[in-house]
Amino acid sequence: MEGIVSVSNLHQLGSASSRFFKLALIALSFSVLVSADSIHAQLPTYSKSELRKEFFRGLRNERALRTKVAEFGLGKEKTEVMLNYYSSLVRDEAVANRIFEEVAATGIFDELERNPSAVLNDPKRAELLGYALFEMLGVRGMRRLDYQDLRVYLRSVGVLFDSLPPRVCKALIVGEISDHRELEAASSFLMKRMTLQELDSYLRVYRRAVVAEVRDFPAARELNANQKRIADEALMAAFMKRLNNHSRGARLALALADQSKASDSDFCEAGQVMITTLLDMSGAVAEWAARGFVDSIQ
Asked: Which of 219, 208, 210, 19 is nearest to 102 (CA)?
């Protein structure tokens, strides 16, 4: 199997896996905002400060949020975890202000003033903007977190590879699922498979990442060239050792080397082996390897 898999294959898998995590971020506030009668009825008369205030009101609309989260059918305890996660984010003034500025930059407020029906008839547009924004902030913010938080993130990626049906797992990671309903179905399935503690831990870490990125503190923890080289070599050695001891190691190596020809089950199992390898590493090199993985998803 030597020479079949390269470090770049592992990093590509890490980059692909990040596509899932926007699904677990409930950012419906944008669709709540653009459908609020008080917004588009009075929009032409709002100053920017008034619009910001009204936007925050829509952003923190708990009833609308509960309605949306209920669609996932997570049960009482997980629903409360999701609600607490989202509420704690949008009540952070720095986060709320960043969301407002990002939404304003898209021109959606101007469009609401000119042609509100066009925006109101496309509610998913605003919701997808929220997904994309929170994904960007969370993924970038991961570089700022400590190693124990990164381990929580890695375990969450492992749940993705381990829990979803192989067809859905591979299609989701390589970007073959784009229909919004299918994405929400996959997200709901995964959140149901996660334990309450896994979901709560993941969302707490993601919140810390978003807040850190918005506040630009602490600084991103970057690897130097020597640390990166050592981490890559150690990860590859540990990964290949695990594959050599695996009954289907050769198939999994080929699955990583050529994702287009890999079976769904081989591809997702290879991903799970990679995450297990990262989590089982020890010493300073383990943190460097974890940070290398996070760098690969930027």
From this structure: 210
